[in-house]
Hints:
The structure is a homodimer of 377-residue chains. By secondary structure, chain A is α+β, with helices and mostly antiparallel strands. Helices cover 33% and strands 22% of the residues of chain A. Chain A has a seven-stranded mixed β-sheet with strand order 10-12-9-13-11-14-15.
Amino acid sequence: MKEIRMEHGAGGEKMRELLNLILNYFVRSAEVRSTEEEKERSEKSEAGVKVGDKDGMRSAVEVSLEDMDDAAVVEGVVFTTDSYTVKPLFFPGGDIGSLAIAGTVNDISVMGASPLCISVAFVIEEGFPMRDFERILESMRKTCEEAGVEIVTGDTKVVEKGAVDRMIVTTSAVGKRSEALKRNFDEVRKFREVRREWLLDSNIREGDAIIVSGYIGDHGVALLAAREGISFHADVKSDVAPLNKMIEGALEEGGIVAMKDPTRGGLSNALNEFAAKSGVGIIIEEEKIPVRASVRNACEMLGIDPLEIGNEGKVVLAVVKEKAEAVLDALKQDKRGRDAEIIGYATKDVKGVVMKTCVGSHRIVEPPVGDPVPRIC
Amino acid sequence: MKEIRMEHGAGGEKMRELLNLILNYFVRSAEVRSTEEEKERSEKSEAGVKVGDKDGMRSAVEVSLEDMDDAAVVEGVVFTTDSYTVKPLFFPGGDIGSLAIAGTVNDISVMGASPLCISVAFVIEEGFPMRDFERILESMRKTCEEAGVEIVTGDTKVVEKGAVDRMIVTTSAVGKRSEALKRNFDEVRKFREVRREWLLDSNIREGDAIIVSGYIGDHGVALLAAREGISFHADVKSDVAPLNKMIEGALEEGGIVAMKDPTRGGLSNALNEFAAKSGVGIIIEEEKIPVRASVRNACEMLGIDPLEIGNEGKVVLAVVKEKAEAVLDALKQDKRGRDAEIIGYATKDVKGVVMKTCVGSHRIVEPPVGDPVPRIC
């Protein structure tokens, strides 16, 4: 690696290489934790805290950078950040403002937490039209209202022409453990053990059902259409939406062990992260995966895989199998989850992610290497 | 305002206009709080919480967006964010990495809080040299180590050539009330009342002493020199540094009511914010303000005011007058504060900020309108 390339930001294998490099600097020991250490840590975590050894400062990091999950957890505070570089800023179904708020709310929510407040940092190119800025502010306000969350702090930088492509928005959020999370894990424990009481990618065990909360690929295809001026007969809109209320409903039902929003790298990347971090295989059925005909057609035309395209209003869940139907029903109660489907299950029979195709064959779903649609978020 | 201009990000009057526009969207009522409301809020805040009315969700925002202070406080969690667009990325005394970590640590610390953890979001231009990236990571790691704080979560986006000028870093941090803060305010209360127990810009009253923790102008001048290839005989280095340990030492002494890091807009902007938000005048003495001869010469040569240049390793404090000397001594105990000086006091005799010049005349220190040195942070 002599320089940073587009694939380093694409949510796939190359990105993992770059993140490992970053971890080398930011984590005292970047070695992958042995099962032993993991177990010890998890026991401490169940006892409430992991006590750091640094400078006499007690740091209780329950979910750290090394977990490479959607958010960190420190002393009970759930914390996440994302920069949004989407192009164009306005697209069918949303804009950079709704995207930034919803994305950050969702990163908190998929951990099993409730968003408490949000920060917004703008970097704006000189000459940016005030009317567009106000449209973005209004869209952020509305998304906050839907999610029931408040923007409490921020920063605004203006840079000269050419120093940024119009605008970058970085949102961070703080959340706290959702009240429903304990009940959710009580429900899990009726059927099997679970070590860490957050919705972690590493929590999945053989037999767990895999659920996706609705149609995939909408966001990426809508972006691509808006960017390239392509029309795909049927109009496709981005699915960008805050999902905290839908997720809280599903947690009330209980039995969920892991959750992830399949953004960069799409469903394919999310499932591969589940499989790798949990040390299980995942089998999914192509015919169960909700993909709109218009999205499927667009993908075929462009030669891209709908499984690798980013989504901004969907989650993938792993649920103990005894609760799979009940959680599915709970998701369907919410308008954001009404097209949810059980698409597969975790197993030791395969390694990685395998898809039974519509024609009956099996295909390995590799983690994506590059990004079929860059700058979607 | 038809479009966003450079002055909108310059930390002065024009920036306040833009921030007011943002507040209009993000705060339910953007009207300036009347003294009555302020008082009521402060009583509630002293009782522990301010209860929101939104969607049945209890939100306890102690320090909000409307306070336009260095960080927000929600349910005891102190929260701040900043995007760094500095140019060049490497400069004498630091780089974008140390700048981002130190800046965010300082924004937490000047509220009277201890930083708990940090998030880092990178936006990187394709083709960025890996060697430079690693230099920045190492510099972040070192600054974290000095501050005793951990990076726990992050995001990395890579964009195509021309979409960003090399790199933007956005850091956010979460902090908690410093243990010394209560003792600090107990000390304040020996001499006078104070309403809100955070180091707020609005806490200053007549008679309070104004202290600056060291030489001002170093960062801006170092940046300018690096950018323009100008040499000012004596080398000037950026003062970028995490100040949490120095600040904790000063809080142990007690008697501090307000604190601010004079970054964009410099000392001039910080003092004008103090005066405006606290509703007092401030008189400072030019000869007391620590400015290096090399910085003064550079500023004269370039026709810029050292009071308006950004600093990245300094704080301005307001302290009850009975404790001013003791706090000054506490600051001087730390290498980051050894050149601290009492530069003036708050008074009702003047409006805004007035400086007694070295030649004995008086000069009004206006809040800066534009930025003499853009992209310093």
